[in-house]
C-alpha cells in the first residue's frame, strides 16, 4: 500500500523564487532607508528632491519617496511571485524600469528639480546592475518553458 504525500500545492519555479528574493531585498532596502544609522544624515531625509542628503549605507542618496518606491517594488515582487508568469513579468518589466531609471539618472543633472527621486552616481550604477540582472533572471530562468496549451 503506497502512502500519498502530495499536499496539493505545487513547488515554486526558479523564476518565482527569484522574484520572491528580489522582492524581499527591495522590501529590506525600503525599510533600511528609514533606519537612522544605516541611513546616514537621517535628519536630512526629505520627502523628495535632490536636496535630500540622507545616504543609505553611506552611498545611495535616498528620500522618503525613494524608500516608498523600494517598498512598493518589493511588495510587487512578492505578490507577483505567486505565479511563474507574474514572476517573469516582475523581473522582466521591473528590469526594464530600472534600465530606464539608469538612463534617466544619466540624462537629468543631479542638482536640478528633475532629480526628484533623488538619484546619485551610486544609484545609477546600481540601477544598471539591477536592470540587467532582473532581465537576465527573467529570461534565463524561463528559457525553454512554454505555456501549457488550453
Note the topology.
Layout (H helix, E strand, L loop, with lengths): L13 H19 L6 E2 L14 E2 L3 E2 L2 H17 L3 H24 L13 H20 L10
Antiparallel strand pairs: 1-2, 2-3
Description:
The protein is mainly alpha-helical and 150 residues long. β2 and β3 (60-61) form a beta hairpin. It has one domain. A 3-stranded antiparallel β-sheet has the order 1-2-3. α1 (14-32) packs antiparallel against α2 (64-80) and α3 runs antiparallel to α4 (121-140). The protein contains 4 helices and 3 strands; from the N terminus they run αβββααα.
What's a quick, concise take on this entry?
This is DUF4383 domain-containing protein. The protein is built from four helices and three strands.
Major sheet, described briefly?
3 strands, antiparallel
Share of helical residues:
40-55%
Major beta sheet, strand line-up: 1-2-3
What's the average pLDDT?
Answer: 90
Uncertain segments are none
What would the principal axes of the Cα set say about the shape? globular
Strand content: under 5%
List descriptors.
mainly alpha; 150 residues; 3-stranded antiparallel β-sheet; 4 helices
